[in-house]
Write a structure and sequence with these properties.
Helix content is 44%, strand content 20%. The protein has 13 helices and 19 strands. The strands form 5 sheets. Strands 5-2-1-9-18-17 form a 6-stranded mixed β-sheet. A 5-stranded antiparallel β-sheet has the order 12-13-14-11-15, with helices on one face. A 3-stranded antiparallel β-sheet has the order 6-7-8, with no helix packed on it. Helix 1 packs antiparallel against helix 2.
Length: 500
């Protein structure tokens, strides 16, 4: 989006205006030479036309500096410097005009002609943009695909590492706060067509459909997808070296140098399991939910007319995906029992509790143990963690995809915003990312879902939870202040660079 904005507003308008001013100034020099020009009517007419171009040049440049500083960072330093020279030359010519109510010499306009010609030549040579930021993204679930798409849309060179694995099934609820991100990441069709719950705040989509739409957009954007597993990541002075294993070559390891690595593997990669990033069980502000719990589950034919989901008095809940024709029922157990086998009797009781006909059951029931976790850190150096690797929530909350999408956008903005920045500014941006991610993981940044009538924390899902605990709120306030300071410093840095 940023690069398109620059190309449309600055490079086209600025370069075209620069060419016209260069021609106009050269004509003035050739026509009037070093003669005194005060009062010459022909000169007055010629310069009036040039002043219109001056307005176009200055305003287009300043507009983008104000509204899209991240896009300006995509330009080469040479072009940014030459654009500033042209703006200053144009303003000097204008000042001369106002001061003398005309001009006594063509010298300011000759300088403007040179500067404007320099801009036009750089643009026409195709050397307008700096080398795109190179990013390796690990994982191709919703978090990985959304991150890759958003980065590519902003002009980054993206490689997606996605080992071939089993297709994931199931349906998810997507909080209203994530709909806009999903549209921007390539899931507009899901947002438009997915059924919405009775509150109007949650849409339901099957994981295969969601990942298919995001994957289609990744293909359209030309994102390179490699069937590699990330084995290790080295932090370099100015980037990362990603070690990947290629299963097609007997697991041989090769390396890829990049500016950033973003882990969206759900916590399965070695880097996300390291002491720096690894997740820890977390109760925190959720209070009502344990940090670890075993669930039994069963699938059945979707029930028409019952909405997208409901909960029984004992906490058993159903996700009813009528579009896909499948209902999934869950019940949390009082004790953790990893790897337990679910009997037919347990599955039958589970469905009956939700008033679902057991004879419509599909496949074999199963169990899984879910954990509520928080990463020790979501960002260090040039490595960022998004999605489940940054933190997980209980399935009853139905917020995993929403969190993955917001994490993805936060990561993309951090990477693009830090392009061409100083090391100190990049470190500040990563600290801000980490603070915001941890803040989100504790539920402190999520306010009420619009029109829901109740407070919803990170991961609260359609059923809602109590407002966040006071201690989590205090920690989040500190994190917010830190993130705000880092953002303000980045903004000041951009102004120093581009408005000097």
């Amino acid at each position: 989006m940023g690069i398109n904005l620059i190309r449309d507003i600055v490079l086209q308008r600025f370069a075209e205006s620069a060419k016209r001013m260069a021609v106009g100034a050269e004509t003035l020099v050739a026509t009037y030479g070093d003669e005194a020009l005060d009062g010459r009517q022909a000169f007055q007419a010629d310069i009036l036309a040039m002043r219109c171009e001056l307005g176009t040049l200055s305003e287009s440049y300043k507009h983008v500096l104000r509204d899209a500083p991240d896009a300006v960072a995509a330009l080469t330093p040479e072009l940014r410097e030459q654009m500033q020279v042209a703006v200053r030359a144009a303003e000097a010519a204008s000042d001369t005009w106002h001061e003398h109510r005309g001009a006594s010499s063509v010298a300011p306009f000759a300088a403007l002609a040179d500067a404007a010609t320099g801009v036009a030549e750089i643009v026409s040579s195709g050397a307008a943009f700096a080398r795109p930021v190179r990013v390796v993204v690990g994982g191709e679930g919703p978090a990985g695909l959304a991150t890759a798409n958003l980065l590519r849309e902003s002009g980054a060179d993206v490689q997606l590492m996605a080992p071939v694995g089993q297709a994931r099934n199931g349906s998810v609820m997507i909080d209203r706060r994530g709909w806009g991100v999903l549209e921007r990441a390539g899931g507009a069709k899901v947002v438009a067509e997915a059924p919405v719950d009775h509150t109007g705040n949650f849409k339901m989509a099957s994981l295969p459909w969601l990942e298919r739409e995001l994957g289609t957009r990744a293909k359209e954007l030309g994102i390179r997808r490699q069937p590699f597993a990330v084995a290790d990541v080295e932090q370099l002075d100015d980037g990362v070296r990603v070690h990947v294993a290629d299963p097609r070559a007997g697991g041989g390891v090769t390396t890829i140098d990049a500016d950033w690595y973003i882990d969206a593997t759900g916590g399965s990669s070695p880097i996300s399991k390291s002491n720096t990033f690894g997740r820890e069980l977390f109760e925190g502000s959720y209070g009502a939910l344990p940090s670890e719990r075993t669930f039994i589950a069963a699938s059945a034919k979707a029930v028409e007319g019952r909405g997208l989901g409901w909960t029984a008095k004992d906490g058993t809940f159903a996700i009813n995906d009528v579009r896909e024709g499948v209902l999934t029922a869950y019940r949390g157990l009082d004790e953790v029992d990893k790897g337990m086998t679910v009997t037919a009797e347990q599955a039958t009781q589970l469905l009956r509790t939700l008033e679902v006909d057991p004879s419509t059951m599909i496949g074999t029931p199963w169990s899984f143990t879910a954990q509520q976790t928080l990463a020790r850190s979501a960002g260090q150096g040039r490595v960022l963690i998004v999605g489940d690797g940054a933190g997980t929530v209980m399935p009853v909350q139905q917020a995993g995809v929403f969190l993955a999408l917001t994490d993805a956008e936060r990561a993309a903005k951090t990477v693009i915003g830090a392009r061409n920045a100083t090391r100190e500014a990049i470190d500040d941006a990563v600290r801000a990312f980490d603070a915001e991610s941890r803040q989100a993981s504790t539920g402190a940044v999520a306010g009420p879902v619009p029109d829901s009538g109740h407070g919803v924390m990170r991961g609260a899902g359609p059923h809602g939870l109590e407002q966040i605990a006071e201690d989590a709120g205090d920690a989040a306030t500190a994190a917010t202040e830190q993130a705000t300071r880092a953002h303000d410093e980045q903004t000041r840095m951009m102004h120093r660079v581009f408005l000097a």
